[in-house]
Fold this sequence. Notes:
- The complex is a heterodimer of chains A (189) and B (88).
- Chain A has 7 helices and no strands.
- Chain A has 189 residues and is mostly helical.
- In chain A, helix 1 (19-30) packs antiparallel against helix 3, helix 1 packs antiparallel against helix 6 and helix 2 runs antiparallel to helix 3.
- Chain B has one domain (3-87).
- Chains A and B meet through helix 3 and helix 7 of A and helix 1 of B.
Amino acid sequence: MWVYEKKLLYPVEVSECNPKLAKYIAEQYGGADGELAAALRYMNQRYTVPDKVIGLLNDVATEEFSHLEMLATMIYKLTKDATPQQLEEAGLGAHFVNHGHALFYENAGGVPFTATYIQAKGDPIADLYEDIAAEEKARATYQWIIDISDDPLINDSLKFLRERENVHSQRFREAVEVLKEERDRKKIF
Amino acid sequence: MSAAAEQRAMLKEVQQADFVVVELTLYTNTHSNDEEALEQWRLAIKEAARARKAYEKRYGPLSLLSVPSEQAIEMGWRWNQPPWPWQM
Lengths: 189, 88
């Protein structure tokens, strides 16, 4: 089970109301390479991987939920004071008529989240390679959002998240090596 | 410093200390024989507990695994009370 902590993993501050930036950030909220996909993917794969890598998938999944909360905070703060006209000008008119000021699990193009974004193959090496790719795609997406954003406060939080994808990718690569070592050891004995 | 800014600053100390634990936990997951990292990890957990206790004494529990301090109870602390993290 999980226990809620009344704090973010890392602070999120915004300079001003900016619904257009919120729309772009949605790519990492409910998009194919976003944090919801990441959290659900690892949380679900952890049941069928060898004991040596369960902890990593469990703990990275948990961290991804804290990233999801950071992104939600960004989107909320960037849109909460926007008028319907401002939302429409930012390309969020369709979002507004369906969801009002609520958040929704969708990508930057407004496409709703789907479980088809993620995979569980029941093969630890195949799953870990997918996980490494997912982290690299997320890292690249964060870079593109940072490149298009002109909010230095948001960019500070996005850079933190971008770095976390690097670290996760590195840990998953190490997990592959841990499994290969274990496999080779079993062959010897 | 405003009261809200002061709270954010104290919370940031908790966030920093907790982050060290998050990072070292992931590292030791894949480096289970790195004794130096394991020792850093144990120290980081201690430091995070210290930072958390200092914050919670004043502002109340961050999670319901912590016992509310007398100071927080006197201040009328309730779990269901703003600010929530996205409101800070």
